[in-house]
Specification:
Blueprint (H helix, E strand, L loop, with lengths): L5 H17 L2 H5 L2 E8 L9 E2 L1 H15 L1 E10 L5 E10 L4 E12 L2 E9 L30
Parallel strand pairs: 1-6
Antiparallel strand pairs: 1-2, 3-4, 4-5, 5-6
Length: 149
């Protein structure tokens, strides 16, 4: 059984996004377990982001440098596990661009323990497999070869 209700998980995600939009370092840190990991697709430097403090510093940088703001488009929270998925938009106001995507959340000890970000963007044609950087797919029992291979 989950330690947070679906409504509590959704509220924590909304609090996290409010802290992102405010560029509030301490509020951001308070949303995560100390050892939290934020995974990203390839193309960003220094990914994944490991630790609550690193995640907070990186989002504060985005707010200050890119003029970043985020909106949550949809939230779905599991009724029987410590998971949620959202759809979001990252508005980079200083660059006059936006990025859309999804994130899968895992919760532990009443906080966010993991985020896996997926972008609504073209695949990297040079990559053999387009996947998150440094995410343990095999260890999490994801398929590592196509069916029939």
């Amino acid at each position: 059984m989950s330690e947070l209700s679906p409504d509590q998980r959704a509220a924590l995600i909304r609090r996290y996004f409010a802290a992102c939009n405010a560029g509030d370092y301490l509020a951001l840190v308070s949303c995560f377990t100390p050892d939290a990991v934020h995974y990203f697709p390839p193309g960003l430097p220094d990914v994944p982001w490991r630790g609550a403090e690193t995640i907070a510093h990186k989002w504060v940088w985005c707010v200050e440098t890119l003029g970043s703001r985020w909106t949550i488009e949809k939230i779905l929270c599991s009724a029987d596990s410590d998971e949620a998925v959202i759809e979001w938009t990252h508005w980079k106001r200083n660059q006059k661009t936006a990025l859309r995507g999804d994130e899968w959340y895992l919760f532990r000890d009443g906080l966010i323990a993991e985020i896996r970000a997926y972008y609504a963007a073209p695949a990297d044609r040079s990559a053999r497999i387009n996947e998150l950087v440094d995410f343990d797919y095999a260890g999490r029992s994801y398929a590592t070869v196509p069916p029939g291979d």
